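INTERNAL AUDIT FORM
Audit reference: QA-55
Scope: verify that the stored structure record matches its stored sequence.
Auditor: D.O.
Record contents follow.
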Amino acid sequence: MRIGEIAALVGVTSRAIRHYHHIGLLPEPGRRANGYRAYSVRDAVVLARIRRLTELGLGLDEVRDVLADDAGRELVEVLVELDADLARQENEIRERRRRLARLLDGPVSAEEVVSPALAELLGTAPATDSPMAAKDREHLVLLDTTGVGSEVYAALRPLAEDPAVHALYERLDALAAAPLDDPRIVPLAADMAAAVPDEVLAAIPSGGPVMTGFGQALLDDYAPAQAEVVRRVMAALAARVAGRGTG
């Protein structure tokens, strides 16, 4: 993705992104042959976390401390201080304090500064050490930054609780070092697409801005064989949506 695309996706300005680069908050991405920055999904995930934390009222120095602390202890300390300040402005920050109350229930990481609806969805998913499940979690956090509605998370809840879905993650994990002609790719893509109910597709809003670089950046975030599975799943779901619209 180019800087304008990642800015539109996460909901910040290109100027803000350049400032984050300047102060070392967001690492500079690699550049294409033409000199333009090439942002990945991983860059978008980090940028989404920065936006969420700044929306809670944290300064950029505090955001840097939170992102550097994987255990989440620094985030809790900062939120406690912020809550004391926001309490003196009750008429303006009631919704913000409700979100803080959820976070202050226990130690959290910067990744988990999400909307209440997504926090509820993530809380229903069983613990897993699957790298692909962790990647899907990051993508949901990124999606949350775009303002997706709570109805999408409600539709996803049966998937989060389904043991069969976690078996699909394990099959996708197993393709980390596989070649592109691996015979497991096609059946796995078919099974993953079939596992997505129509309710999920119906809940995803249509229209809106088209992020031309996002699809490729998403695929670039996976190993080649895994990316081929994801590409096939995306194509199958798009075909289902198109078929429903013409049926």
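Auditor finding: record pair retrieved intact. The CA atoms of residues 91 and 97 lie 11 Å apart.
Action required: none
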